[in-house]
């Protein structure tokens, strides 16, 4: 996994930022024009057009601290052609006007800009007739002759503290930050801001800030075409937040106007991140990315759906395929392989010099073939955008012209490999050169080496490229995802279907649902790479798109990190892939429990057969999960996410290990934390046949009583039916229910697993 780094909005030094902070209309100060739909009420200052009131009518809650609104609900940031001046110059609209085209729609217009007399900024804000949502669009006219870096809209200032706040962000899988203002305040940065790029680091277009007992601020967007944009929250000195969506028009001074092809959405909701996910799902699942889902339309080879367990191992085939074949025999269900470090070059160094495999062509081919004879398939790592700029092929193949260029014409290069210090450079997805190169690599992987597909590292991200020679729109636009789609089409047209290959990718993102067969969602094991912070992983992406996108993957491991044998010998740790301290066993159980109840295909990293005896309890737990899950695929692979019933979730403090393959140089590849975690995990899924499955996983050493009561209406089930329980010992009738009241009382054994099924009578 590579961390996505987005610097673009922080690099201000070469831009002239134009602030529009004041303007005048014929109204008196303090007068407000409102629109209201009975659910929410929006108010703009008549004199200036500032957005100074947003209230949740039902809960009589005002989100905005009026005195803190200093600016207009938008901001245009021009790029200075005289780069390097670094100065700020303000130009101001001298005139503001508004009109209502109907009761629910307000049109706002700013004009008379000093120094830019042609410029007009128009915004339309309309309310949903039925929901607590509003839709915002913007148009900037008279921009010819200027280079626009970004247009921030909407820009909502003065968002008050809701108290006991939670911030839910779909960072690939999803993050939940408790008391986000505290975390922002603790930041050392001058501007206390978090921003996330979409598509890419955000898998969906929403953020939700809420107090579950009060109300919530819902910010979203209805772009179905994958245009580049950022979402940002900034904390000011008086503890109010600014929210903004940052739009990127094409970087072209000949454009006369910019009009977003989508609307931003601002609304309120009562509930939590699951409520926000449900709200978003209503829109998201109606978009073409779901119509064209590979999972839903059964476009992926059936072996992928049938995968009971993934092994993610590294190195030559005897360290990868051999243990997988052994584990498949032990499990008795399909085990497949996610394979790193098989390639010729050392990792993060001389990509894309992947071929021939490091163990040699014949050895690799024989190993792949004999694993396939045993029913074990493999997908191989190849980075989807990176080229090592110290490699021989970089020069020999003339890669440089086809690399991504930033707004200043510089390449995007980063040295991930701390041992060699060699950097990798982003290639532009919109160039035929890179698509041809990458699809020829896939051709080799599948057609020559007979693998079962490719894992495309760094797949779910978006880069803005400013290279005019590439033929795509400059800077902002939606060419990246579109060209990723073209790349996958080209690969699928190139590779033979003989081994029924798949394309998997890093991260998750709604935009990639039609293109990738499987999404690697590592945040399920977040603590392994991020340690313990106030951010918790939530299955946000799965809550919206589970039945449309297959997710798998985990850093979950019982051994110390491996070290690429092709890296410098002097930095190699003494022991690699040796038993981790038993103190960390429960972390492994927790990760596997989460993946199970959150509807992912289970994965173990760095598996070796000595773990069967050395870590028998943990391996048995994983195999039991794989077996039980296999009996409940209609829920855990194909089901729709539902809220789990309320029950007691006892907690325990456990030891957490943070691991890094790149810590070797400093001599310490494992860092220890303590964390209070739940001993019981639950995930609830609705199948197409309308039955509901509740997956429960205990990681407790003791028996755990589980009791919950639910109302059948909450899951849109009929008022009577039967309740079953499935464990690895089989399925049995637990009881029946009537009058819509479902009571479940069971006791889970130590590290017990089960699926409680509610099957309504027809
Ligand atoms: Zn480009």
Task: Write a structural description.
With 762 residues, the chain is of the alpha+beta class. It has 3 domains: 277 residues, Beta-galactosidase, Chain A, domain 5, CATH 2.70.98; 377 residues, TIM Barrel (Alpha-Beta Barrel), CATH 3.20.20; 83 residues, Immunoglobulin-like (Sandwich). The chain has 15 helices and 42 strands. The strands form 8 sheets. Strands 7, 8, 9, 10, 12, 13, 15, 16, 19, 20 and 30 form an 11-stranded antiparallel sheet that branches. It has an 8-stranded parallel sheet with strand order 31-29-28-27-23-22-21-32. A 6-stranded antiparallel sheet has the order 1-6-11-18-17-14. Strand 7 and strand 8 form a beta hairpin. Helix 12 runs parallel beside helix 14. It is globular, with a radius of gyration of 27 Å. Bound molecules: zinc ion. This is DUF6259 domain-containing protein. InterPro entries: DUF6259. Pfam families: DUF6259.
CATH topology of the largest domain: TIM Barrel
Distance between the termini: 47 Å
Number of structural units classed as domains: 3
Hey, roughly how much beta strand do the residues contain? 25-35%
Helix percent band: 10-25%
Computed Rg: 27 Å
Instruction: Label the overall shape.
Output: globular
Topology, number of strands = 42
> Low-confidence parts lasting 5 or more residues at pLDDT below 50?
3-22, 82-89
Q: What value does the average pLDDT take?
A: 93
Main beta sheet: strand number and arrangement? Answer: 11 strands, antiparallel
The bound ligands are: zinc ion
Tally of helical runs: 15
Oligomer: single chain
**Which CATH architecture of the largest domain?**
Alpha-Beta Barrel
